[in-house]
Amino acid sequence: MLKRLSTLLIACAVWALANDTSVAVVPLPVKIERSSGHFRLKHNTLVITDRETMSIGMLLSRCLAPALGYKLKVQDAVHPRDNSIVLVVDPELARLGPEGYVLEVTPRRVTVHASKPAGVFYGTQTLRQLLPPQIFASEPQKGVLWKIPCVRIEDQPRFAWRGALIDVARHFMPKDFILKFIDQLALQKINVFQLHLTDDQGWRLEIRKYPLLTKIGSIRKETRVGRPRDNQGFDGKPHGGFYSQADVKEIVQYASERFINVVPEIEMPGHAQAAIAAYPELGNTGEKLEVRTDWGVNKHIFNVNEKTIRFLQDVLDEVLELFPSRFIHVGGDEVPTDEWKASPEAQARMKELGLANETELHGYFIRRMDQFLTCRGRRLIGWDEILEGGLAPGATVMSWRGVKGGIAAAKTGHDVIMTPTSHTYFDYSQAKDPKEPLAIGGFIPLEKVYQYEPIPPELDAASAVHILGTQGQLWTEYIATPEHLEYMAFPRLTALAEVAWTPAEKKNYESFLERLRVHAQRWRLLNVNFRKFSE
Ligand code: TNX
After folding, report:
1. Which is the catalytic residue, given 199, 206, 370, 486?
2. 400 lines ligand 1 (CB under 6 A)
3. Residue range 512-521: mean pLDDT, rounded
4. Pair (128, 182) in one structural domain
5. CA distance 155 to 336
6. Measured in angstroms, how far is the CA atom of residue 291 from the centroid of ligand 1?
7. Residue 196 domain-assigned?
């Protein structure tokens, strides 16, 4: 009898803890120990930092202020005291890696310890999610007690690369929205933000040496309505926009304060029509092209002249000045070689270089960029097509056409980011409801993303270390506004954030949905247009 009663009690306690939405943290931390009681945040609670965590403390104070109605004082102090949030770097915690942290909440104080500032930052993101959801409101909340449940959380990410990509080339997204999106990435502990800056339909980055790239290349005269095969014609309205170098500096700075690395992508040798429209000598035919108005793979690509290679390296020089990222993405995907086949110049070049075919010429092109970037202390990334013409020695591969490319690259010792269309393309539709907005195709519902496992079973442990992580893609052919982009991104990107952060054996879809329901309250207050996920 007694035994049964105690089993029942334990079951109740487990149920209560499992359903304890006061600890609704996404992505799920590695270890949470809950104890009774809480810490109460008040107007005179101090944020105590060391020199390295000062800016993190100020950011925390700033982001809590709108809902609190007051700004917590931040002090660089040696001794912790009661009624404080203590943020400290502690080399003793090296076992948790550069992004891990320990967060302890007792009735007297909150402490975040980590071996590096990044870990402290992630501890503060967890802390925000331990507060009542109203903390995400943009104006002072009356009558809310700012209680933080007593916990000890020990946490660290599974993968080093937890990414999101926005294609700002097909549809430009304003800078202020990009900053808002970065806030969302930070909250979910995503640490890589890839900006797809150039494509056939638009060049979105100011390059001082070649002003026509944006003067001509950033505007297309109109856009295809619907999908090409539906033949609904064009909208007759110009579309444009680009980031000035000052905008980029602001974006990169804003992201770096949130421990997010912005990876720029400059597409070559395909997806190049906007650049060729600006500078026709970069093309193969001399034909005067417009910035492309249609979608789909395009036959107009860069030529392989030394002058064009120099041009692109000049562009990269400015890109390297703007983006401190060690990884620089050069695209490399979807390169039909018809123009190179038809071009006497390209054929002569192949002969001179002793290359057997156009695929090898593509490989040569990418290797030239790899050498250039490697000499400057950076690392080249490209889509998995870069494997086909002989992989450049320093290259990292984004495996998008399934996982085969990723497996092949990892087996030969190259680093890989897993970005397969099967699970990480958030431009694909998320429900079969006819009321869903038009999507490019595909079907990737929330649970499918959640169940994604980035390490393919084909890899042994030695090769698996080359899988740096995973990334969600938001291609924008059919996504014209920030609201629509948020709708496609959330909550699927949140599911992928948990895939990338939480140990596989700790993942649980039911628990995720439970926590997501609380997260939805945060999104409402933050004005994030997420898709409802009642399923
Ligand atoms: C393929 S992913 C592309 C993009 C498109 C996307 C649409 C990749 C490397 N290339 O150019 O926008 O499909 O889903």
Report:
1. 199
2. yes
3. 98
4. no
5. 46
6. 18
7. yes
